[in-house]
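TASK: fixed-backbone design
INPUT:
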């Protein structure tokens, strides 16, 4: 039976801490996340916390460029290097001006000034290394904005240095794909699990063979927002945000959304585990450490919704907009 072996709070300080990623590097666990006064706010900054024992966490770095910095991701390069990449709504989300940035560090504490990469409105969602090259999944927002909904498209790009990127293909041009992750099978076939802005109650499975220019897509249930995949114990898993009610789960104790883990099969998701989460929650990071432990980071408001923690000012309604915590969990998946 799948279970949570260990669960601790990484960040709880009355701020909106959200949009996490997780890596193991230089014998430590590193969690990146955005810290701001709300889900969308111009003071959003990128924060990195580190732990050597998976129990005690310390914020050790903060980066901010103009605008609302969001969704920071970490990418170990070698033992002496790590990359941090994130987008920023440079004039606020309402102005629709987005720029992608990347920064590098040799120790995780001191970071080079972030440098812009990609064209404006190119949101680099996830980078994976395969066959000696870097592959990036890009939310392309550069189309015509004829209504309040941005024209989400998903592009697969490749790079040799993380600075210059070549787009290989558009994935599911009619499906409105955005948040996504990619995994390669032993035979070279690529699998993508992606969120859609067109079909909000579901997700999409995408597959292609080299050279990854022609993709087949299949709609799946349930909804998986901000998916991240990991091969573990001979199985492929995906973690992300879901809506329990849409899956027929009516007794789940937290309001609205939750966090889950599913086993990924070709065009199909099998539920494995629910995590304590609710309200504004999502954006997990997931790794397997050198000892074989499966570890997960994510953010959630369930502690405030359940009354375990009193939000600043004592207002639960206000906490739904302005207060969020980051968590770290060790999982046993069967």
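OUTPUT:
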């Amino acid at each position: 039976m799948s279970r949570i072996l260990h669960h601790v709070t990484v960040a709880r300080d009355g701020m909106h801490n959200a949009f996490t990623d997780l890596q193991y590097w230089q014998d430590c666990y590193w969690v990146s996340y955005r810290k701001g006064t709300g889900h969308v706010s111009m003071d959003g900054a990128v924060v990195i916390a580190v732990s050597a024992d998976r129990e005690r966490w310390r914020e050790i770095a903060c980066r901010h460029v103009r605008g609302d910095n969001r969704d920071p991701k970490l990418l170990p390069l070698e033992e002496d290097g790590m990359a941090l990449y994130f987008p920023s709504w440079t004039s606020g989300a309402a102005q629709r001006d987005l720029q992608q940035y990347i920064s590098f560090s040799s120790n995780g504490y001191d970071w080079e000034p972030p440098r812009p990469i990609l064209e404006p409105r190119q949101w680099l969602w996830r980078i994976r290394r395969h066959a000696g090259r870097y592959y990036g999944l890009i939310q392309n927002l550069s189309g015509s904005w004829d209504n309040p909904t941005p024209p989400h498209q998903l592009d697969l790009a490749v790079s040799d240095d993380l600075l210059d990127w070549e787009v290989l293909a558009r994935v599911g041009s009619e499906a409105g794909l955005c948040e996504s992750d990619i995994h390669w099978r032993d035979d070279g076939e690529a699998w993508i699990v992606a969120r859609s802005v067109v079909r909000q109650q579901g997700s999409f499975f995408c597959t292609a063979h080299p050279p990854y220019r022609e993709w087949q897509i299949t709609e799946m249930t349930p909804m998986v927002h901000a998916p991240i995949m990991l091969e573990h114990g001979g199985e492929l898993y995906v973690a992300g945000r879901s809506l329990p009610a849409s899956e027929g789960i009516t007794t789940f104790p937290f309001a609205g959304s939750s966090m889950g883990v599913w086993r990924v099969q070709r065009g199909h998701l099998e539920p494995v585990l629910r995590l304590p989460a609710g309200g504004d929650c999502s954006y997990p990071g997931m790794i397997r450490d050198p000892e074989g432990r499966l570890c997960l980071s994510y953010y959630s408001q369930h502690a405030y919704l359940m009354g375990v923690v009193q939000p600043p000012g004592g207002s639960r309604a206000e906490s739904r907009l302005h207060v969020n915590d980051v968590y770290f969990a060790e999982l046993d998946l069967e």
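COMMENT: The longest strand covers residues 16-25.
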